[in-house]
Amino acid sequence: MDFLTSMDISSSALSAQRERMNVISSNLANVNTTRTEEGGPYKKKSVVFKAANVDNFQKVLLNNIDKNLHKVEVEQVVEDKGPGKLIYDPAHPDANRDGYVEMPNISLVSEMVDMLNTTRAYEANISVMNTAKSMANKALSLAQ
How many Cβ atoms sit within 10 Å of the Cβ of residue 141? Predict the structure, then answer.
């Protein structure tokens, strides 16, 4: 595996984690949203990742020596189908006739944990890219 392949794999992970962070941000921003264009409260969204083959010119030339290498892609963003939380608030404009308001099915604690995990994964992939860059620089300095 050359250093460009490791950079390609890490950059795909950075892109995927950025998308995951955007979805988490949307969930946190809409934690109290009771009205959407679709009707009803905001529904929690989650990112689904999938492994994708790393395709580069060198890999084709070497007859798939590194065929076990995979980068990551965002396959889709899915909406949680679970019911929202019912909160008793008869003064709320979206309260039903019994005084309950259906709130989004978002757990602040769970979203914060996901945000920390995403941040750590992003930082880890930055470290991989920096290490690959350092290795390439050292290899170039040996050639001098």
Answer: 8
